[in-house]
Design brief:
Strands 8-9-10-7-11 form a five-stranded parallel beta sheet, sandwiched between helices. Strands 3-2-1-6 form a four-stranded mixed beta sheet. The chain has a three-stranded antiparallel beta sheet with strand order 12-14-13. By secondary structure, it is α/β, with parallel strands linked by helices. Helix content is 52%, strand content 9%. The radius of gyration is 30 Å and the shape is globular. It is built from 26 helices and 14 strands.
């Protein structure tokens, strides 16, 4: 048996004894073969890996000599003119036989898998042991000798991502067993080296909090938020935002609880954060039950896969993904990106918490295009734009001409890059995009059909008005639409059970669906609030049947923000409607709020367009809150005296006689 250690400088043992792998190029050759264990490596790939783009005339002869040398080293006891068993010749090149060769890479992957499986069983100590055993195999960069070869760089990147995930998993396990100070020390060094790892940031903040360093825990989260906004133009993921609120409120769910040495049947609430798993989709185990769980959306994913396949064969596509806040637009696109095999995903987003320069999402897209298409030349105008050297003329005509030339260069570069590989461009949160970014999107849409580009544009449906001109240009490009609504009752039950980490009853699922309308964000926040209440009260019901708590703070912030954007008159109307109940008659609410009926009808049209209410199809003049939570939040925002006063006005308006028209309307 031949054993290789490739997680660092390559070395090998044959029959338990170390062997000399020879000169640098010979070591490069065997490292390349180890990275493709069990797969034939063509001769031209070997020549390129050893001599880049300029192999000498004697390259093939030298390659054959290296192979002969390696065969003698790896099979010292093989008799002359007998078939080789380790480094074999195939009709497509050479290969290392995986049946007689072992590599530390596979041992590391097995340890990592065992660690996640132990974690999912609740065995935190075993998970810690497996993670540490896996990390012990690492001695440096994977496949060091050929790590920068174009034929190995993807595998090196995959292994490095896997290693970082295991480091985070080990730290999560340290937190679970109570080794908070050890976790702090390791995570501080980890985040110093990898400052954009959001899960590492989450773990470090929790570790600091449990170590009694609350101010430092909050500073870590706020530094991360600032860095994400400045460097990537994105917001922290919801888990980080929720963790900050929990730290500020000293939520009991953050406190550490001892874990048993052996797996137990009972489910603990939150001793530590579950490790996120970054492995190829075909080998991905079940994800941990946290706020990253993805449920449903199969029809939308099928549609995205269909348009992606069309784009890959030269029929470029534009697809828009719209829906209310929290409905899962970004999650859907991330899920699609995970499944977009063979097509690099270029992601550009517009942050909502910080001002960004013009064309910010396109800077992100173009930067990633250069990474994924390194051999396609970047034209000077695009390079100047990325370097910040592209100035903007002051006079109107000159500015328009320069902008058009810049847009043309960017569009032609992206279309040209897609000839080397199909590309998926994701533009998220486009309701916050600057006018120049939207104009460039419209410019690209005009040419996308003759490319291998799929352009996916996500925006909030309640702020679609700011994209009106862009939408017209996208429509001319034969765009398709994905309009996301809430999850159905079955999907609501599946998501709530996953977040709560145990099955809930059908009745509880129905109540959650009624109150949230299947909005995944509202649903997660309600279930997390329930979990915190259970933890604080020491009560655990399984399956869930207890009353669902009132709207938590994150939900209130989102709802009140959506309502406030509609103007004070809409706020007044909806406040009275919340007193009336889930459904309300517009004429009654308008009279109670002292709003003329013509103005009220305009207001309900605006509010319905924002997705907060829907017209009752069976009762003329009646409307229903899309989510019961919306009415609850507005009701809770009022003081008791104001509620009583408005309820009296609602009753007075409702009791006033009305003349009924033949079609059912009242007067």
């Amino acid at each position: 048996m031949v054993e290789f250690r490739a997680l660092g400088p390559l070395d090998a043992t044959v029959g338990g004894r170390p062997v000399d792998l020879g000169a640098p190029k010979q070591r490069k050759l065997i490292a390349l073969l180890v990275s493709r264990l069990g797969q034939p490596v063509p001769v031209d790939v070997m020549l390129e890996a050893l001599w880049a783009e300029s192999p000498p005339p004697s390259a093939v002869t030298s390659l054959q000599a290296y192979v002969a040398n390696l065969r003698r080293v790896l099979e010292p006891a093989r008799a002359p003119r007998t078939p080789t068993k380790v480094l074999r010749t195939s009709d497509r090149g050479y290969l290392l036989d995986g049946h007689v060769v072992q590599v530390d890479v596979h041992r590391f992957e097995r340890r990592a898998q065992a660690g996640w499986q132990a974690w999912s069983r609740g065995s935190r100590h075993e998970a810690l042991s497996e993670f540490e055993a896996g990390l012990a195999w690492w001695r440096g960069e994977a496949y060091t000798e050929v790590s920068h070869s174009v034929h190995v760089v993807a595998e090196v990147g995959r292994l490095e991502e896997l290693r970082l995930s295991v480091v985070e998993g080990r730290c999560a396990a340290l937190l679970a067993v109570g080794a908070h100070e050890v976790a702090v020390a390791d995570l501080e060094a980890f985040m110093q080296a990898h400052p954009l790892r959001e899960y590492g940031c989450e773990l470090l903040s929790l570790a600091l909090y449990r170590a009694g360093r609350q101010a430092e825990a909050l500073a870590v989260l706020r530094t991360n938020q600032r860095r994400l906004g400045e460097e990537l133009g994105i917001d922290p993921r919801p888990a980080l935002q929720n963790l900050e609120r929990e730290i500020l409120s000293h939520a009991p769910a953050l406190d550490w609880r001892p874990v048993p040495l052996s797996p137990a049947v009972t489910v603990r609430e939150r001793p530590a954060l579950a490790p996120r798993i970054h492995v190829p989709a075909q080998r991905r185990p079940e994800p941990p039950a946290d706020q990253e769980v993805f449920v449903g959306r199969e029809a939308a994913l099928r549609h995205l896969a269909t348009v992606s396949a069309a784009a890959a064969v030269g029929r470029g596509q534009v697809v828009t993904v719209s829906g209310e806040p929290g409905v899962g637009k970004t999650s859907l696109l991330r899920r699609f990106a995970e499944r977009a095999a063979g097509a690099p995903v270029l992601w550009g987003a517009c942050p909502g918490h910080v001002a960004t320069p013009p064309l910010w999402p396109w800077r992100q897209v173009l930067g990633m295009a250069g990474t994924h298409c390194p051999h396609y030349p970047v034209p000077d105008p695009v390079a100047d734009f990325l370097d910040g050297a592209a100035g903007r003329p002051t006079s109107g005509a000159d500015a328009d001409t320069a902008t058009l030339r810049q847009f043309d260069a960017i569009v032609q570069y992206l279309i040209g890059a897609s000839t080397t590989t199909p590309l998926v461009i994701v533009l998220d949160h486009q309701q916050q995009a600057d006018p120049h970014s939207l104009r460039l999107l419209a410019h690209l849409a005009e040419s996308v059909r003759a490319s291998r580009l799929l352009v996916a544009v996500a925006y909030r449906s309640d702020e679609a008005a700011c994209l009106a001109e862009t939408s017209a240009a996208l429509a001319r490009a034969d765009m398709t639409r994905v309009d996301l609504s809430g999850l159905n009752a079955a999907e609501t039950r599946a998501l709530a059970s996953a977040v709560l980490r145990r099955e809930i009853t059908g009745a509880a699922a129905e109540e959650l669906h009624y109150r949230t309308g299947g909005n995944p964000f509202y649903l997660r926040e309600l279930v997390k609030a329930l979990r915190s209440e259970e933890c604080a009260n020491g009560v655990r019901t399984a399956p869930l049947s207890m009353p669902v708590p009132t709207a938590p703070a994150p939900v209130r912030e989102v709802v009140l923000g959506r309502v406030a954007r509609l103007g004070q008159s809409a706020v007044d109307l909806l406040s009275f409607a919340a007193i009336a109940g889930r459904s309300f008659a517009v004429d009654v609410v308008a009279e109670a709020a002292s709003i003329e009926i013509e103005d009220a009808l305009k207001l309900v049209d605006t509010i319905a367009a924002a997705g907060l209410i829907a017209e009752d199809p069976h009762r003329l003049g009646w409307y229903t809150f899309t989510h019961a939570l919306t009415g609850e939040v507005l009701y809770q925002a009022m003081g008791r005296l104001r509620r009583v006063h408005q309820l009296r006005r609602i009753r007075t308006a409702a009791l006033r006689p009305r003349r009924v028209h033949p079609l059912g309307a009242t007067d």
